[in-house]
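Open question from group meeting: does this chain pack into something compact, or does most of it stay loose? Before anyone orders reagents, we agreed to write out a predicted structure and look at it together. Recording both the input and the output here so the notebook holds the full record.
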Amino acid sequence: MNDVGKLININQSKGLPRKYKFKQFIRWFTLLLGTAAIVYALWVIFAKLNADSPKFFKFAPFAILFLALNSVLKNFFTLNSILFTKDAISFHFLGKKSTKILWKNLKKMEFSDDKRKHIILRYSDGSSEKEFSFSIAFPNMLEIVNSIAEMCPDLEYDEFMQNVIINDKEKKAYQKKLKSEE
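Structure tokens returned:
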């Protein structure tokens, strides 16, 4: 129940603007290590391999290159930070354009339970309907979805998100519990 208290009125208690970031040390370390592995694999392929090299030594640099490139691209193009302001929510990436969604344009938040689990935000952008999705593996996900719910009280939710978002009944029960403890 104590965790519920941290999620109630989160935008008021933590303030705006507020930023959530993926752990930068891990992100940059992975990018640097992956880049170094790519450079090493390319060096081995072009400088060390020849027709007489064993098959394993011909295969290994390509496997390293594939795995390192996959890791670098994932870290470069996945969500890096989320910024909450009074007017909008912004999603920032290292390697692609940021996405900014005004609170008044948000229509629905839902959970997608496919291979990679993620949250889908549906919103209107002028005359068209758009959607933006982000992984639930992002740090502080409960705070993020409850902050979105708090900023958009008329937002629609799917069944899963209705169970995740702190509703008015839970808020009242928590406040009642606090009063009884005093």
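Observations to bring back to the group:
Helices lie at 2-7, 10-14, 24-48, 55-77, 141-151, 159-164, 168-181.
The beta strands are 18-21, 79-84, 88-93, 99-102, 106-112, 118-125, 128-135, 156-157.
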